[in-house]
Amino acid sequence: MHRADHRPSRRAFLDVTGAMMAAGLTGCTADSAGSGRHGAAATAVPASSPAPVPAPGPHQAGVTLPQPAQGNLLVVVADLGTAVSAGPLLAELGASIAALTAGTDPRLLGLSPGDLTVTVGVGPRLVRAAGASLPGAADLPRFSRERIAPGARGGDLLIQICASDPLVVPVAAAALLDRAGDRVRERWRQSGRRGTNVPVGAELAAPRNLLGFIDGIVGPHTAAEQRRDLWLTGPPAVAGGTLAVVRRMELDLPRFAALSVTEQEAVFGRRRASGVPLSGGAVASGPDLGAKTPDGRYLVPVNAHVRRAHASVVGAGLMLRRSYSIDEPAPGLLFISFQNDLRTFTATLTHMDAADALLDFTTTTATGTFLILPGFDRQRPLGAGMFGAHG
Predict the structure, then answer these.
(1) How much is the pTM?
(2) Are 317 and 279 in contact (CB under 8 A)?
């Protein structure tokens, strides 16, 4: 595979090294007295293996399954060569995904895949080639607070790899990119991790982000909401897919940390400790945007994030939002939203752009939108509905 930089990158080294450290594969082994002698016996603590997530199905794994989402992620954004046919490439990637998640691919190097999921999307250029009127054919508009190099905007191919085991993620990525070979050229990649999950409702949990707040409380969580706002229902070539927006954002952590807790809560419109809206109620309940103090001030400030991004205020559907904390190239978030109408995202961010207090602490450095392809199985290869399996 061609990379924009053919030298081993520091980020790639840190991805693998960090995964090895998390898996306990670096450093010395301490004895029972904590002397740190090399080769001393260590007490093995059996770890429960997460349930596998089968790749075949009506939807690709890695969107709503598993729940909650795994703790480790790597996204790779790439372009296809001008003479490359998308159909065969996607079919091969789907076959590799099925083998990796089933644990039968020797390129896993003996690792258990656990709850590994791989989710594949195609960018607007490829969608337009398959049909100019298909969902996902439109590029994202430009927004304020962006500082994006040309190579970090757009792209033909999105590969999202998630797993609870941090070591599995880069190993699976290497296997998939090896399968793609020189047919694709990588634009950018980003690793991320999620914080500890906090219960926010019945069978629903969400993690804290780098700003200390619970992230991803609101979304199309019920089956009915997902049918309405998440999954594409037609045309047949895309039914069962969804649209993803991926944005990498730097966060101004020192400036946000300098605010008092009350000021931080006013930025979000929720309590930092509990996630409860400033208007009261339960964590998962929507804020009461009309609630006021006795002197007439809104309990949820007019520029609070939960107000500016609220679906009823924007006049759009719900987004399934997922954020992963990152520390390279700078501290921030990798934000991913899934929705069946790109306007859900664009209208929301346009409304936020006007007055959302949270955006004052963010700078977007990479962005793209992708049609997440429908699910696949042995009879229907990945991408076959749009591109065919052979061309």
Answers:
(1) 0.88
(2) no
